[in-house]
Design a protein that fits this description.
It is built from ten helices and 18 strands. By secondary structure, the protein is an alpha+beta fold. The protein is globular.
Length: 366
C-alpha cells in the first residue's frame, strides 16, 4: 500500500467526528504494519502532525505544526524538526468546507495527489437541496421539501408558502450539514420562524421537509467504482419517534440498541433500497464509499432516499464487517480512489491551437 497522509479536522462543525474516524482508520492500519500519517487541520486551517493516537490529541496538544509542499515531484509534510515523504493525501473529514471539495482544491493547487471524490459530486451530495434536485432528475422519490434562504426568513410570503405547503409537524434542517446538527422538529406554525432563525446560524440555505411519523430509517453503503461494487449490510436506525442525537449517530457499539444491523425488513423494501442506491451511485459516477440513508413511510408504504454521505463516519466499517476487516476495507477504499485519480491524471488539460499567436488584438470587439 502506498504511504498515505490522512487528513482530519477542519473548520466544520463535524470535525470531532472526523478525528474519531481518522483515529480508527490509522490505528487499525498501523497495527497491521502499514506506514501512514495522521494530519490534523485546525479551525484556523493550520496543519499539524498528530504525535500520539489518542482521542484527546487536540485537547492535550499532541500536535506538531507543519505544512505541505511539493518538491521535485515529491510530496512532503514538513515540521520544524522533520520532513515526512508520502505518496497521497486522503481526506477523512466530514461536513461543510470539507466534503464538498474545498480542501481537495487546496491539494490540487499544490499538485499533491489527493484521494477524494470529485468536487462536482461533493457539492451535489453535501448540499441536500441540490441532491434532491438530482434525485428528481433520476425519478427517485425524496421527501417533499422547500428551500428557504436566510435573507428570506423575514418575508411573510415565504413563511406562508411553507405553512400552506406542509402540515405540522415538519422538519427544519441546514441544507449542507449532517450529523443531526441544527435539525429541529417544528410542531406548530407559531414555532416555525423561531426554528428557521436557529437553523440559519448553521447555514444560509434551510431545508423544510415533510415529517413522517410512522416510519423506519434504513441505511446502506456502497464501496466501489465503475464495475467493481460492494454492497453493505442494511442498518435500521431504530428510533422512529425522534431525531437521533449526535452521540447516537456515532455510537457503533453493540450496546447501542438504536442501531440494528441486518434488520427484519420486507424483502421488497430491501431490494428497492439497494436498487435505488446503486442507481444513484452509477448515474452520478461515484467513487469510494458512500452511505445512503432512506426513510420508509409505513403508512403509505413508500421508500424515500433522504440523503447520501460522501465520507460516512468511521467509513461505515460496521456495515461491511461480513466482507472486510477494517484494514482491508480501507485498503480497498484507497485502491478505488487511486484508480479514479490515475484515470483523471491521464486526461488532456490543454488544447493548443495557437490562438494567442494568431489573434489580432486590434480587431477584438470592445
Amino acid at each position: 500500500m502506498k504511504k498515505i497522509a490522512f487528513i482530519c479536522g477542519g473548520n466544520s462543525v463535524e470535525r470531532e467526528i472526523s478525528c474519531l474516524t481518522s483515529l480508527k482508520v490509522v490505528k487499525e492500519l498501523k497495527q497491521k504494519g502499514v506506514d501512514c500519517l495522521l494530519i490534523y487541520l485546525d479551525e484556523k486551517m493550520n496543519f499539524h502532525l498528530v504525535k500520539e493516537l489518542t482521542p484527546k490529541f487536540v485537547e492535550e496538544n499532541k500536535l506538531i505544526k507543519g505544512e505541505f509542499y511539493k518538491k521535485k515531484n515529491i510530496s512532503i509534510f514538513k515540521t520544524f524538526k522533520k520532513k515526512y515523504v508520502f505518496d497521497y493525501v486522503c481526506i477523512l473529514g466530514h461536513g461543510k468546507n470539507i466534503e464538498e471539495g474545498n480542501l481537495k482544491s487546496y491539494f490540487d493547487i499544490l499538485k499533491i495527489p489527493c484521494l477524494c471524490e470529485s468536487i462536482y459530486n461533493g457539492v451535489i451530495l453535501q448540499d441536500k437541496h441540490k441532491f434532491k434536485m438530482a434525485l428528481n432528475y433520476l425519478n427517485i422519490p425524496s421527501l417533499p421539501h422547500k428551500i428557504i434562504y436566510k435573507y428570506q426568513i423575514e418575508r411573510n410570503d415565504k413563511i406562508k408558502q411553507i405553512i400552506n405547503k406542509f402540515s405540522f409537524p415538519l422538519i427544519v434542517k441546514p441544507s449542507s450539514l449532517g450529523s443531526s446538527i441544527g435539525i429541529n422538529v417544528v410542531e406548530t406554525k407559531e414555532k416555525l420562524k423561531e426554528s428557521l432563525v436557529q437553523t440559519s446560524y448553521y447555514d444560509d440555505a434551510i431545508l423544510v421537509e415533510t415529517y413522517i411519523k410512522n416510519k423506519i430509517e434504513i441505511n446502506v453503503a456502497i464501496l466501489g467504482y465503475e464495475n467493481e461494487i460492494y454492497i453493505s449490510s442494511l442498518e435500521e436506525v431504530n428510533d422512529s419517534k425522534n431525531i437521533l442525537s449526535f452521540y447516537d449517530k456515532y455510537d457503533y457499539s453493540s450496546t447501542n440498541k438504536k442501531r440494528i444491523i441486518n434488520p427484519n425488513v420486507d424483502e421488497k423494501i430491501k431490494v428497492k433500497i439497494i436498487e435505488t442506491a446503486k442507481k444513484v451511485f452509477d448515474n452520478l459516477h461515484l467513487c469510494g464509499l458512500i452511505r445512503f440513508d432512506f426513510i420508509i413511510d409505513l403508512d403509505q408504504e413508500k421508500v424515500y432516499l433522504n440523503e447520501a454521505n460522501l465520507i460516512p463516519g468511521s467509513l461505515a466499517y460496521y456495515l461491511f464487517e461480513n466482507q472486510f476487516d477494517i484494514p482491508s476495507l480501507v485498503e480497498k477504499y484507497i485502491e478505488l480512489l487511486m484508480k479514479k485519480h490515475q484515470q483523471q491524471e491521464l486526461l488532456l488539460n490543454k488544447f493548443d491551437e495557437g490562438f494567442m499567436t494568431k489573434i489580432d488584438l486590434s480587431k477584438l470587439k470592445k
